[in-house]
Amino acid sequence: MMSNRDSDFGAFLTGFVLGGVLGAVIALLYAPQSGEETRAVIKEKSIEIKDKAVETAEEARLRAEHALEDARSRAEKALEETRRRAEELTQITKQRTTELQKRGQVILEEQKTRLEGAIDSGKKAAKRTRDNLAGGESSTTPTKS
Fold it and tell me: What is the C-alpha R_g of the chain?
């Protein structure tokens, strides 16, 4: 994009200088003056046009420098804003991860407690069943003396 602007400006500047010189030459050739006066005026006008072209080029260079600096400044601000948002997102992600880990730990402890309770209930039920079976066998089975 920048090279396209440069070539457009170069074409404009070339056209401006050539148009100015050509216009001055035509005006002087049709003006009622002697050859020496005409050459002096052509020389003077060409110097003026050259100075004007240099001045215009310098102004264009300064505008381009300002535009570049402005673009650089905006890019730096955008980069800083992106960094700030990335840091915020990182912080939020860390907080949510920590919250989820805590919730997961609570759920794990709850499930562990339930499982331990179920295991204890199963053990007690198995013991009662064994005791009942053992008690029932002892009443039907004769004991040796």
Answer: 48
